[in-house]
Amino acid sequence: MNPFQYVRATKARAAIDARAADANAQFIAGGTNLLDLMKRGVMTPQRLIDINRLPFDRIERQGTGLRIGALALNSTTAEDRQVLERAPLLAQALNAGASAQLRNMATVGGNMLQRTRCPYFYDTALPCNKREPGSGCGALEGINRMHALFGFSDKCIAVHPSDMSVALAALDATVLVSGPKGERRLAFGDLHRLPGDTPERDTNLEPGELITAVEVPDSAFTRHVHYLKVRERASYAFALVSVAAALSLDGTTIKDARLALGGVAHKPWRLLDAEKSLIGKPATEAAFQEAARVAMQGAKAFKHNQYKLKLAPNAIVQALKNAASAA
Amino acid sequence: MENEKPQPAPDCPGHNEARRTFLKQSSLLTALALAPGAVVRAAAAELDEKVAAAFEQVPLKLDVNGVKHKLSVEPRTTLLDLLREQLHLTGTKKGCDYGQCGACTVHVDGKRVNSCLTLAVMQDGRKITTIEGLANGDKLHPMQEAFIKHDGFQCGYCTPGQIMSAVACIREGHANSEGEIKEYMSGNICRCGAYPNIVAAIQEVRSGGQKV
């Protein structure tokens, strides 16, 4: 690991100012991804600003939703009574990610900001525009079985690895950010960005901006929900494809629906048209198949991830079936 | 990896290359850390607390297995390296060093964590329990007894991490069925494949009703 200066912040303002003033600084919370990347030389910050002692770890009811502090642990959040009652989809997605040990370390804010697990990003001997702008995308013509189907560019075809973020995208969450210019709110769908010509930027956060909390609005999606994660072993692996599915049913009729995919794009991939196709329909396999068909419009695979073109729609149908039958 | 005492790193091409990069970066950083002392002091005031330059030893207080330690560490020392190399508690193993195998599992303030993926300085003031802190004198912890009884290991390298994780798994209330145990023990890899026996050991301790 490269040597670095370590500072510990006890006030958010000081942390933000210190980060804004130093392009080579990084915030550190759980550290489960940052230290991993630093050990491999993928990230080499010269200063770490430890934000773990900031007062952002509470999960509380606020207005018509839940406000989850950015420093709440993944494990605490997944088992929080209010989260289980009001946003069970989020709890399911959190428990699908990482291991029990990592969930005890990783924070909600850090989970959103984790970097891609693209092997070309992780290997400093290989080209990667995200790690080293201008060096090329090794995955484009290389081993691309884990890569994107939607929203990629010729500069980057990596996918975002977070499960939690897929559920937050489906639940229309809002990210609370504090920065050098004050505070602002970002719709969850606007936090992450598509790679375009600047894949080195994962999010729309400005330098020095610190996520302080995420708000999950109350919704009707408290029962018929399912987070389906397809991976190469039964647990503790990143998604090949994942689906966050939520239904609001009136008898057997779908009143409202939410759908988002993970493992297919540079950001959680919300499926608004597929959601619309479900509304007013009976909750049957035929309706789910049609939603999956709509969802996959515009998908494009590379040499080694063709299988996702079949896996993703099948996963959508299965997730919707599981959601509909959830007790 | 199996050596119990810190060894000089092997002399291989990869190592030399890493060393060169390290020297290149470190000379830069030393300069940075030494020159603008005022900047560092200003930052210290602003950030209320500790500021440690790259190679500075940071004071650190830790309670490890009930023993209070006053230590000093370089900021980049992981909790795992501190335990093994400074405190010589070599029961906690370095497997992958990237949080993928679970061999380094310890408890921090009662929660199981991967000690390879956290900096020692981040744990200032916390209570750490390692595999060495589980037994009561010569009396093994029930989970240690159960691992022996059920042959929950072969080579034994992952065992300290498995046992620390298993104890936490029961304390968390995640050992209510075989399926739940498998899910909540998935962060601990066993290359010998002792999994069925590990699950059996956990089930026995769970159903035995002993205090873990």
UniProtKB/TrEMBL annotation, chain A:
Gene3D superfamilies: 3.30.465.10, CO dehydrogenase flavoprotein, C-terminal domain, Uridine Diphospho-n-acetylenolpyruvylglucosamine Reductase, domain 2. Residues 1-221 form the FAD-binding PCMH-type domain. The keyword Lyase does not apply. GO terms for molecular function: FAD binding; oxidoreductase activity. SMART domains: CO_deh_flav_C. InterPro entries: CO_DH_flav_C, CO_DH_flav_C_dom_sf, Diverse_Substr_Oxidored, FAD-bd_PCMH, FAD-bd_PCMH-like_sf, FAD-bd_PCMH_sub1, FAD-bd_PCMH_sub2, Mopterin_DH_FAD-bd. Keywords: FAD, Flavoprotein. The keyword Metal-binding does not apply. PANTHER family: OXIDOREDUCTASE, XANTHINE DEHYDROGENASE SUBUNIT C-RELATED. This is Xanthine dehydrogenase family protein subunit M. It comes from Hymenobacter edaphi.
From TrEMBL, chain B:
Pfam families: Fer2 (PF00111), Fer2_2 (PF01799). Residues 58-134 form the 2Fe-2S ferredoxin-type domain. Gene3D superfamilies: 3.10.20.30, [2Fe-2S]-binding domain (1.10.150.120). GO terms for molecular function: 2 iron, 2 sulfur cluster binding; metal ion binding; oxidoreductase activity, acting on the aldehyde or oxo group of donors. It comes from the Bacteria. The keyword DNA damage does not apply. Keywords: 2Fe-2S, Iron, Iron-sulfur, Metal-binding, Oxidoreductase. It comes from Hymenobacter edaphi. This is (2Fe-2S)-binding protein.
